[in-house]
């Protein structure tokens, strides 16, 4: 089955700096890659996703890049703010074979004011 | 967020007891899922269901059971066979998109979670 590895497990940045979180996946047939943000004590919420027919997607300060050949994808947050502090999870799935998401183990991002 | 609910928010269980966690959605979503979250780990899939009266085991199904008698409901029972049940349990749902005969699934929406503690 699919295996997703996520790095780093913790990341601390100064407000205004950029943050990058990286994930690798094992199944070359995976074609859907969402990123979720989970604030302390709350439910995960989708912040951005990418499908394998594109290499990059951007939404304001958040961007995701995908390298299908190397089987890795990354989350980029620019101009970080204290409210970006949370745990971020990447995930991968093969949409057409059902809806199973395999999650990475999460990155605790701390943005210091 | 209000479209998928879980109850109770906190649940305490004595060893040897079965407990059932509720998950309800009014989003008309086809698929529903149960995940377990432990500190420092990602979300691990317990069971999922793509249609009513059908469900599949996830990666850690041992000691758990589910039913899907209604589209909007997907309860999870934690049985006494689950040796380490203390965790945060998250339910999710997603809509199934039919594209030219191929089924695909969109974003998963999560409930607020149930924190289960074994006493």
What can you tell me about this protein's structure?
The complex is a heterodimer of chains A (113) and B (119). Chain A is mostly beta strands and 113 residues long. In chain A, 0% of the residues lie in helices and 54% in strands. In chain A, the strands form 2 sheets. In chain A, strands 2, 4, 5, 9, 10 and 11 form a 6-stranded mixed beta sheet that branches. In chain A, strands 1-3-8-7-6 form a 5-stranded antiparallel beta sheet, with no helix packed on it. In chain A, a hairpin with a 4-residue loop joins strand 7 and strand 8 (72-77). Chain A is globular and about 40 Å long. With 119 residues, chain B is mostly beta strands. In chain B, 0% of the residues lie in helices and 54% in strands. In chain B, the strands form 3 sheets. In chain B, strands 2, 4, 5, 6, 9, 12 and 13 form a 7-stranded mixed beta sheet that branches. A 4-stranded antiparallel beta sheet of chain B has the order 1-3-8-7, with no helix packed on it. Chain B has a two-stranded antiparallel sheet with strand order 10-11. The mean pLDDT of chain B is 89. The interface between A and B is medium-sized, with 24 and 27 residues.
């Amino acid at each position: 089955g699919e295996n997703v590895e996520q790095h780093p497990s913790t990341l601390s940045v100064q407000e205004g700096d950029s943050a990058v979180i990286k994930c690798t996946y094992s199944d070359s047939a995976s074609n859907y890659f969402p990123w979720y943000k989970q604030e302390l004590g709350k439910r995960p919420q989708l912040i951005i996703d990418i499908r394998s027919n594109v290499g990059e997607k951007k939404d304001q300060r958040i961007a995701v890049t995908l390298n299908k050949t190397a089987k890795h994808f990354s989350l980029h947050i620019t101009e970080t703010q204290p409210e970006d502090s949370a745990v971020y999870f990447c995930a991968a799935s093969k949409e057409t074979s059902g809806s199973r998401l395999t999650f990475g183990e999460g990155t605790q991002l701390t943005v210091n004011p | 967020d209000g479209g998928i609910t879980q109850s109770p928010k906190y649940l305490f269980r004595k060893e040897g007891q079965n407990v059932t966690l509720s998950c309800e959605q009014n989003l008309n979503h086809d698929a529903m899922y149960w995940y377990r979250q432990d500190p420092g780990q990602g979300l691990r899939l317990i069971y999922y269901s793509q249609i009513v009266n059908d469900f599949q085991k996830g990666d850690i199904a041992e000691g758990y059971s589910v039913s899907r008698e209604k589209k909007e409901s997907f309860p999870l029972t934690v049985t006494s066979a689950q040796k380490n049940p203390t965790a945060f349990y998250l339910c999710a749902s997603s809509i199934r998109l039919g594209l030219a005969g191929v089924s695909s699934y969109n974003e998963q929406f999560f409930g607020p979670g149930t924190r289960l503690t074994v006493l």
